[in-house]
Structures are given as C-alpha cells and as structure tokens.
Amino acid sequence: MLEMIDIGIEKAVAYRLEGKITEEEMASVLSIFKEKIQRDEKLIVYQEVVSLGGVEFDAMIEKLKFFVDVGLSHFSKIAVVTHKKWIHKLVDLEGKIFKNIGMKGFSIEEKDKAIEFLKGA
Question: Across the chain, how many H-helices and E-strands are there?
Fold first, then answer.
C-alpha cells in the first residue's frame, strides 16, 4: 500500500509504503512527480517505509519508464524514513552516487530530523 501523507512542507511529495505496492499506486505518485516537473519545480520527496511486501512487476516497469523519460535531474532532496538499516545504507550509497541530489536515510525515531533536512531544500 502506498499512502500519501502530509508532513507540513507544501512543496514536498510525502508518502508511506507498507506491504505490497501496486501499479496503480506507483502511477499515482509518479503522476504527482510529473505535474511538479511540468511546473518546473524541483522534487522534494519524503518516503516513509513501514514494511515492504513487494512491488508488482508492472509497478516497477512504471517506475523504470519514469526514470528513463525524466531522469534524476528534477530531484532536489529525498529523505527516506524507516527502521530497516539496510535501506539506510542503500539510500546513503545512492546519495554518494547521485551527488546532485540531497539524499539521506533516517530512522523512524528521526522523522523530525528528516523533515528539517527537507525544509533546507
């Protein structure tokens, strides 16, 4: 399930992931990204990962098509909040690879720090 949430930052796209992600859910968040890109806005993303129960194959295809079409240059900052340490490591590695994007992993207890990180965008 992918649920849009409000973190108090007007320009941020914020959502919570729990369980299996469907193609429809992935398409909905990607359409929000596309709308912001069309308005020439930099993307500020808050992603809270409660649990991952898998992603439908078609949802992954949607995501891949999006990144092939759009690229990563539209992303400004990404905060990933989760209790899963391996996701923190992955996000921190991605942050080193994609140096033009402020990307950081936070624990669930650090939600406030994640939001402060995004406010600095």
Answer: 4, 5
Q: Tell me the per-residue pLDDT of 41-82, one tens digit each, with 9 for 90 and over.
A: 889 999 998 877 766 667 767 776 777 677 778 889 999 999
- pTM (two decimals): 0.86
Separation of alpha carbons 16 and 4, rounded Å = 6
57 token code pair: 């194959």
Domains of the chain: 2-119 (3.30.750)
Provide the CA 4 distance to its chain's centre, in angstroms.
11
Q: Are 48 and 5 in contact (CB under 8 A)?
A: yes
Distances, alpha carbon 79 to alpha carbons 57, 61, 82, 99, 107, in Å: 24, 23, 10, 14, 10
Residue 98: count of CB within 10 angstroms of its CB: 14
The radius of gyration of the chain's CA atoms, rounded to the nearest angstrom, is 14
